[in-house]
């Protein structure tokens, strides 16, 4: 898709569709009034008919008047909500909602009038161009196209996106919009890997996909198989992975030199949970919605995609990405409840519940990241159902220490337009994790506060500044939204990219 920025008035821009955002209650003065006039009063007519009221992201397709005074073939009017509520997240979702509204239609060129958004958004036109362009790319995604050849019911594949920004710096906005498209493409890469079925993407296949992406984008990669992982002492990783006929893989990707510090003095590591299918193991899950457990690899897919996106935006930026990939299956070699296993850092873990497997593979992966020189760590995981019950599908949970590092991650999330809520690491809860036989259990029998205890477990395996992002609620949607289909959302990809890019060397 080609991105163009034009500084003409919106009615002078040729396109199949011109998107017109409405901020607050429409007042038909200035450029919006001129658009209405040139459309033959179409916009006012929609207002009086009651079409232009309702929730944010509601949209209406309308004619452009037929007089030729508007050069676009059709208008797409979309409600953007009140100006004081228009933030970076909303700007992304507006772009996505515009694109998704055109599903099933033959549209080659889409123009979006940026001025209403730019006037209300902190960061102005440059921020609006980046975020709206990213939204359009993310809105073009439809998982139905993964396996269905010739699928034509999804959003259109645009030849051209035209950012319409009268009076702005076209060169600067084009650069911003292109940055947004790259981040959007990375998000879609993560979504496709996450959405692919478990009979399609095993740990070995995920490693092969990571290898292909690494070679395409100049990243160093190492894939550790079960024999080497066992020799290295990755007992927790192997405790989960050994139950399946599909052997585990520890995927390690790196941009920059080994141990190299970025412009902020960090060797940042991003670690993602990669359970390609989670049956629960011996502690087997209920059958209801077990098909969703192919999504338990989303964290791994996200860090792989984020490493690639960072390399595209700023080649050579120091960054380490680790994706422990396993299947958690019952079988003759599966770990049993009550098994006591030695972790890579030497701690003995009493595995009381094999369905609390994500924290096990993250533990060894985080230890290994530190051994490879990581000074700052973020892990991303679909870890607990508790986080979605607490925060729903639009806000992810976050834990971490020290607070200064948590604040840096949250600042990156703000730039990305993603929402997290910090939760406390309650030290007193560690008493519930004591084991009769080892150093700690992986799952407390008293699981009140289980969301906190899951993070406390992981904290036992880090010694550097660390943040844990539990995206079990935000990783995928069970129902269609105006800005997204069902399935993987790409959640946290943009946050990780912004975090890494903060340390990019000029």
Give me some keywords for this one.
single chain, 506 residues, alpha/beta, Aminopeptidase, 9-stranded mixed beta sheet
Description:
With 506 residues, this protein is α/β, with parallel strands linked by helices. It folds into 2 domains: 2-169, Leucine Aminopeptidase, subunit E, domain 1 (3-Layer(aba) Sandwich), CATH 3.40.220; 190-501, 3-Layer(aba) Sandwich (Aminopeptidase). It contains 15 helices and 20 strands. The chain has helices at residues 30-38, 42-49, 88-101, 115-120, 124-139, 170-195, 203-216, 226-232, 235-241, 298-313, 358-371, 385-391, 403-416, 450-459, 493-501; strands spanning 2-6, 17-22, 59-63, 74-79, 109-113, 160-164, 220-224, 249-255, 268-272, 274-278, 319-328, 339-342, 348-351, 376-381, 396-401, 420-422, 440-441, 466-470, 476-477, 487-488. Strands 7, 8, 9, 10, 11, 14, 15, 16 and 18 form a 9-stranded mixed beta sheet that branches. A 6-stranded mixed beta sheet has the order 1-6-5-2-4-3. A 3-stranded mixed beta sheet has the order 12-13-17, with helices on one face. Strand 12 (339-342) and strand 13 (348-351) form a beta hairpin. The radius of gyration is 24 Å and the shape is elongated. It starts with a strand and ends in a 5-residue tail after the last helix. The relative contact order is 0.12.
């Amino acid at each position: 898709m080609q991105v163009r920025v034009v500084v003409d008035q919106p009615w002078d821009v040729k396109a199949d569709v011109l998107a017109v955002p409405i901020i607050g209650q429409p007042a038909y003065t200035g450029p919006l009034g001129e658009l209405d006039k040139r459309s033959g009063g179409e916009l006012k007519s929609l207002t009086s008919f009651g079409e232009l009221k309702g929730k944010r992201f509601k949209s209406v397709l309308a004619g452009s008047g037929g007089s030729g005074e508007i050069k676009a073939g059709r208008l797409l009017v979309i409600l953007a909500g009140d100006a004081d509520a228009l933030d970076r997240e909303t700007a992304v979702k507006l772009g996505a909602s515009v694109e998704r509204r055109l599903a099933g239609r033959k549209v080659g060129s889409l123009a979006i009038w940026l001025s209403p958004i730019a006037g209300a958004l902190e960061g102005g036109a440059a921020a609006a161009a980046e975020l709206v362009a990213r939204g359009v790319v993310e809105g073009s995604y439809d998982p139905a196209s993964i396996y269905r050849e010739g699928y034509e019911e999804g959003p259109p594949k645009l030849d051209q996106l035209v950012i319409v920004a009268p009076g702005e710096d076209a060169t600067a906005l084009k650069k911003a919009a292109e940055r947004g498209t790259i981040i959007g493409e990375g998000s879609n890469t993560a979504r496709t890997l996450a959405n692919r079925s478990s009979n399609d993407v095993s740990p070995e296949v995920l490693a092969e996909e990571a290898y292909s992406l690494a070679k395409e984008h100049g990243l160093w990669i190492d894939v550790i198989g079960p024999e080497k992982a066992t020799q290295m002492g990755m007992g927790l990783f192997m405790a989960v992975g050994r139950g399946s006929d599909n052997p585990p893989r520890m995927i390690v990707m790196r941009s920059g030199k080994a141990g190299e510090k970025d412009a902020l003095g960090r060797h940042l590591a991003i670690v993602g949970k990669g359970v390609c299918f989670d049956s629960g193991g011996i502690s087997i899950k209920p059958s209801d919605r077990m098909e969703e457990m192919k999504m338990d690899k989303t964290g791994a897919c996200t860090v792989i995609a984020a490493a690639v996106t960072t390399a595209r935006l700023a080649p050579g930026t120091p960054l380490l990405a680790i994706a422990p990939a396993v299947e958690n299956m019952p079988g003759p070699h599966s770990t049993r409840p009550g098994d006591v296993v030695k972790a890579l850092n030497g701690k003995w873990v009493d595995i009381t519940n094999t369905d609390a497997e994500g924290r096990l593979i993250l533990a060894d992966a985080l230890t290994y990241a530190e051994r490879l020189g990581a000074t700052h760590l973020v892990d991303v995981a679909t870890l607990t159902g508790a986080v979605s019950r607490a925060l729903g599908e639009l806000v992810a949970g976050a834990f971490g220490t020290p607070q200064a590092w948590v604040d840096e991650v949250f600042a990156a999330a703000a730039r990305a337009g993603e929402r997290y809520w910090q939760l406390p690491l309650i030290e007193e809860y560690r008493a519930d994790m004591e084991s009769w036989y080892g150093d700690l259990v992986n799952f407390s029998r008293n699981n009140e506060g289980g969301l906190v205890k899951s993070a406390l477990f992981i904290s036992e395996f880090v010694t550097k500044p660390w943040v844990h992002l539990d995206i079990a609620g935000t990783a995928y949607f069970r129902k269609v939204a105006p800005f997204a289909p069902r399935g993987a959302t790409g959640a946290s990809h943009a946050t990780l990219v912004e975090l890494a890019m903060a340390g990019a060397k000029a």
